[in-house]
Design brief:
Number of strands: 21
CATH superfamily of the largest domain: FAD/NAD(P)-binding domain
Shape: globular
CATH class of the largest domain: Alpha Beta
Helix content: 25-40%
Radius of gyration: 22 Å
CATH architecture of the largest domain: 3-Layer(bba) Sandwich
Structural class: alpha/beta
Distance between the termini: 22 Å
Number of domains: 2
Number of helices: 9
Amino acid sequence: MPTTTTAIIGAGHAGLAMSRCLAERSIDHVVLERGEVANSWRTERWDSLRLLTPNWQSRLPGFGYEGDAPDDYRTMPEVVDFIGRYAQAISAPVQTNTTVTSVKANGDGYHVATDQGDWRCKTVVMASGACNIPTRPKFADTVPAGILSLSAKDYRNPDQLPDGGVLVVGASASGTQIADEIQDSGRPVTMAVGEHIRAPRTYRGRDLEFWMDAAGVLDERYDEIDDIDRARRVPSLQLAGTHGRATLDLNALTAKGVRLVGRLAGLVDGKAQFSGSLHNVCDLSDLKMNRLLDTIDEWATDNGLDGEVDAPHRFPPTEVEASPLLGMDLAAEGIGTIVWATGFRPDFSWLEMPVFDRKGRLRHDGGVVEAPGLYMMGLHFMRRRKSSLIDGAGDDARDLSTHLQGYLDGA
């Protein structure tokens, strides 16, 4: 059985960032990848998806963007190419097409079983992704026969959908982008809107990500937050990466003809039931957006940028019908598809360790798991607000590789 000091599970941007940081510390390791490098980006994204962050923000340890379009947004093939080139540039010791089937404690280290043989190691870094398993409400199983039901992970393009209307459930980044594309295809879209955070693509002449990066919003740490569990459940910003840097919020969708309803609360005998809280949810979303813009304005003033950028301004409130629909007979409305854009959770089915809480969530302190020598990379707001972004992997990997080195020295 081969041995190594550290086994990294996953060869996406997070696992490769950790590989680079471990190599800089001369810590021998292997990167175990179930498919090819950047497998999730290759196989689990819809066709037209672009990164929500501009090209300049794709920064990994010792590697970054060198093209002539820093303010554009990468397509999925471009993301795969970027991560693949990074793996080559750092000579990452990746073992592809190797699926991890279990991780167990083994004396003072770990036994990592795979379908290509087992490994013995002192430490393990789990970088297998935060979006492995789509989360859907239990009543999703009661969708009537004859209606296609698929998750955002399974959606690829409008051509795979049958004729008829589409109910998109969820109004964060994935839901708004999918709804926009399907509406443009000629299918009428109804969007069930739950908690979301409205965000402009640009503000005061700059990309919103520029402001969040410069003002330190993305660098905010998990141990600076009063309720980090709540912060980790906050939906993604309503952003989209387009050539024209267009804002894709609910107002943009309704202008195209998308019908907004409240959160999908249940399905009974082919009839959808919607919450009556749509007005309140949208008001709260607008409030959160304006608080973020207040933070940006304050930072711009404090740093002398007011004379260099556009003046502060606020956006019109989200427009909602006076009496949104509370129920819908799916067949009568001609709904042929339901797309569940209701979030994801990581898959730790192979982790045979007592490190989960009563809700099945991994117990960790900023990526340091409650088991000696076990670490996690890539979760939402794991160590910083940007932890799940490509741009966040480097800082997290530096922190955790420092902790891992200390653990090895102490051990």
